[in-house]
Amino acid sequence: MAMKLKYLSSISEDVVKRCAEKLDTSLEKLVEEFEAGWIPVDNGNYGRNLVEFCSAMALSVMCHNIDEKINDSSFSRLTYDMMLAWERPSYYDESDPTEPIAKEKEERKIAVNAAQEQEDIPLFYSDIMPLLVSNEPSVGEDAFVWLGSLVPLVADVANGRFTFETLTAATGFRLHFPAYDMFLKEMDKCIRHLQKQATPTGVELADDEYILHVEGTASSQRVIRHIGGTSWPGRLTLSNYALYFEASGVIKYDDAIKIDLSKDVEQSVKPDATGPWGAQLFDKAIVYSSADSSEDIVLEFPELTSSTRRDHWLALIREIIFLHQFLSKYNIKSPIQAWEMHARTMLGIIRLHAAREMRRISPPVPTKFLIFSLYNEIPKGDYVLEELAENLKKANSGHSCSASSILRSMNISRPILSETNKADESAPVLDDSPSLRMAIEQSREEEKEVLVAKATTEELKEEGVTDGVMVLTELIKPLKSVIPKFQQIFTWERPRNTLAVLAASLIITYMEWVGKAIATFLIWVVVMMLELRRKRLYETCNELVIHRSSMSSDRSTMESIVSAQQGFYTLHEMLHIANITILKIWSILISKADKHANIVMVALIGLAVLLAVIPFKFFLMGAIIQSFIMTYPKTGKSSGPGTGNRRLKEWWDSIPIVSVRVAD
């Protein structure tokens, strides 16, 4: 054993020894227990596997009274060292193996003391930045997610990579101990703050219902409910089941109005704008609508500059709605499994609160911390949620390091079943299966691709109506030479051409050559695309330059502006969509989007083969049947757009467009 341990890095050896102390056992017995179940497939994994085993065993003991260990930084110190040891398990992984351990521990003490003295200073935006980003070794994304798979406190394995990116965006995507320790302490502060919140007036919360966010009190910013032409300030409370609004009275709050977010009906919450006399001037509100309610509920979150408060509340409310839709869709009936998902959602909201406290000047994107809001937004997110539901049924929810057990140890949760009281001291079994990791990675990579493609369309959103008309006019110029020819044919201006087209159409239809004609046209399109690719037109066509001609415009009166405002908005949106659509098609034709062009060419060839082999009359019959099906009156609740439509939309959104520059 001594021969193997000497190849461990100094931090790995130190972590293993401290884990043995936590387990109240000797180092030799702990290593022997590990080696008894370890399969030596690859000797290079011995150090990391030993660190993983010892960390899991030690954390199962530490999670019983985790709140006390967070306050004295012992939990954050040990778990941070576990991440360091996981990243650098071997002696050869250390950059400076001769550095004394005593010096390393002394530097840690200095960093911890500095962080404790400045714990009230927001992260990344203060003079304490040199202390928050210390010279101590930092940890990366993989180690952070690995720790989240053991104890879902600082991160959840489902969205841990997105959380890490958001937290470390200002520090080169490396996590330093002062920031990590402060994040855990902010989470503990948020939990204690939520525990002190008063129950909404006239409401008795369920046994497993807990307050997750409150605003509209004397110590927080205002919340206003709009009912017709009247406005009522009050207190807004969010729980893991419902939303409560209490109108402010003369002395106390009125009885709360409950908005049940857990009911199995069609409901939605969207951003909205409010203003005097119904004018949509201030984009700082949300509107909640439900199928079982004829009246929408409008809530405004006033603030001077941005609408970050509104966006924060919008994300939280949607997260609770998505949580209950997830439990209903995947038929999760077990109370233990359902409560585990509740606990993971609540911890995600607490992480978001902590991150907002640490980054007050530039609040993080809420969806990066919320599991369901994230995967209902990014491509292939439905695949991740499906894997999450499958793995939830395999996870050990009764373990001391499960999300529900962590909340219970921090006094925010009461056990709802007797089974949850049985502490399981074995190694945690969480939903970190290879299929889930693969789905997360695929969704993450496609999100980056979509963001890159969407970035190419952002500049078109800033153009005005005049520029939009100019771009559309320039894009449809090639059609100007084609449309007159068709007009000449259909108006019999050239009888010979008209008769020739008519005869060809009759022959093709009679001989059932419609499919072959279309197949020929599709093959011609593929040949043209290959020809454009051979000419490397995509290398030279990086942007379209449109020269703005001198245009004189009369100033409109205030009355005409008000009356035409909505019409201009609609026209502008139509022009914007048309321009982007044409530019995306152009990117495919010239292989600017090479991967998408390949897919289109393969699809066109496949369609051409089908049309060439199968009689076209069957396609016509199918189209007729489909048209009747599409127009048939629908019954029951609509299930929303299908998976095929979602895949097509995600593919379309990932197509970058050619840059457009309007030059004078």
What's the helix count? 28
| Beta-strand content bin | 5-15%
Tell me the Rg in angstroms: 31 Å
What value does the average pLDDT take? Answer: 80
Largest sheet data: 8 strands, antiparallel
Say what oligomer this is: single chain
General form: globular
Pfam families: DUF639
Transmembrane segments: 499-527, 574-593, 599-620
InterPro entries: DUF639
Keywords: Membrane, Transmembrane, Transmembrane helix
List the helices and strands and how they pair.
Layout: H1 2-5, H2 10-22, H3 27-37, H4 46-62, H5 66-71, H6 74-87, H7 101-117, H8 129-132, H9 141-150, H10 160-167, H11 177-195, E1 211-215, E2 223-227, E3 230-239, E4 242-247, E5 257-260, E6 267-274, E7 282-290, E8 297-300, H12 308-329, H13 335-358, H14 371-375, H15 381-392, H16 403-409, H17 434-455, H18 458-461, H19 465-475, H20 477-480, H21 483-490, H22 495-510, H23 514-534, H24 537-540, E9 543-547, H25 558-589, H26 594-613, H27 616-631, H28 643-653, E10 659-663
Helix pairs in contact: 2-4, 2-6, 4-6, 6-9, 7-11, 9-10, 11-13, 12-13, 15-17, 19-25, 23-26
